[in-house]
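Take a look at the protein record below with the fold in mind.
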Amino acid sequence: MTTIKPFRIEIPQTELDDLAAKLAATRLPAPLPGDGWDTGVPVAYLAELVDYWRTKYDWRAAEAELNAYPQYTTEIEGQQIHFLHVTSAEPDALPLLLTHGWPGSVVEFLDVIGPLTDPVAHGGDAADAFHVVIPSLPGFGFSGPVSEGGWTADRIGRVWAELMNRLGYEKYGVQGGDIGGSVSPGVARAARDRVVGVHTNGGPGPIPRLPLAEDELRSLTELEQDRVARIGRFMQEEFGYIAIQSTRPQTLGYGLVDSPAGQLAWILDKFRAWTHPADTLPDEIIGKDRLLTNVMLYWLTGTASSAAYVGYVQGQPWGSARENTGVPTAVLAFAHDVPIRRYVEQENTVTRWNDIDRGGHFAALEEPELLVTDVREFFSDLR
């Protein structure tokens, strides 16, 4: 089946009423000593956002914003795939496939669709126009749940290549971060004769296996040594969510699909840890409404466990090197990111590397203008 069907988000009011009732009946735990971020999302902060979600957040406005863009579904390898497909009016626009990560969604890219598809209206040049395709990862949002395993980055890359083939695109670029940073080069491995360039924020990997030998560590730049140190701290202080999601995603899912406050807290914890600067609350960087719309795509579709399953159970075994396709690859490394060029170049042909002293993990949400500029510049010579 290769049919592409138009899709609109139309959530029944009964589901929103049920959400409101659950939010009103939220039972929060007693604060742990200090009620700080070192033990997780503070109770006082979550209580404030739960109240905002219940009394002020407007899903219908968010739904209308999403539905303002053409959306579709198609079945590939037995899996429903949901995607946005926004074409440019510019005749020479380059198709660009954008892939989100966890705990993100297609919501990540809402602020870059306009600048990418209509650059003239956003201070750019017509020659920089893109047609954008933004799929929901298998198991995420309206591409969920999943009915089988095996959703590695390379398999998703193969599915994305088939999606672009169904849309009739012969040549195109790919861009992504987090899971999308691994999937994007996977598209190039599946269709190297069609992908003109791979752009990643945060890097496509791999990262070094720690601890590094002393002589290897000394050979790195000061910035790279800082990134190695932060990778080490992440493995010690933040790895818990990966351990749970990669081993017991179903058990975790029971709490997240039944408690909106639990789902919100699980996602908020990462937005606090991965936005930049770290001492600024995530809603002050991204905004409460955008944060909640992203959470809503998990809540309304009940895909917390399937997203965890695809994102963290299906990964490629450590140490299994991927093929370098030779496709030109760009790395846009924001302040929170930890890519190290010599390791990235083991599997990727890096032709552009840009270190930025601000910005976090969620590039399209935090620094949309910087991301758009870097994407435009990278692909300008690859069209």
The first helix runs from residue 13 to 24.
